[in-house]
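User: Run a structure prediction on this.
Assistant: Running it now.
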Amino acid sequence: KKKINYYLVATALFVAIATMISMTVINYYLFQKQVKEDLQVMAETIESTGILKQDIKEIPQIDVEGIRVTWIDKGGTVLYDNQNDVKNLENHSDRPEVESAFDKGTGDCVRTSATMNSNTFYHAIRLDDGTGNGSKYLSISPTNEIASMMRNCFNNFILYCISVILFFVTICGCLSVFSDHHCTYNGKQHA
């Protein structure tokens, strides 16, 4: 009888963990897809304003809440960044999203940011500069505050899933103990 109880609890625990892992993977995939789409829309919106077609010295501060905007030339040199001093930024030509934008016109990736020291979503597009040769590129990513908020949201989801698993395992354990006592009690009555 105790083996049956252990198997019941083990089965419940396995199902709960498998469900949590599946839900986490699915939610992360959907979340990543949504962030990529949002960054793409934001990049296209910034490009459509024409603000980046101006002379570099005439560009006003681009203040998009929660978004880091980086303007890059064909060689990877940062021409403009709304969050950092461009003099302190390294060449961006080897960044995966920028390499992809060089080749295909658009690119995105999730990688560790050297500036923010955390995993961050990135999206880059080739800008239409009127010459047709695509000599400028725009890279956007969430700011550190937004990236931190996204991580906290994801971590809270994991904690919620673990709480649900513990709740159901506790319920299964209680039910197995109750059924064990009930079966034992009924068996003694009939004996």
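The beta strands are 67-73, 78-81, 106-112, 119-126, 136-142.
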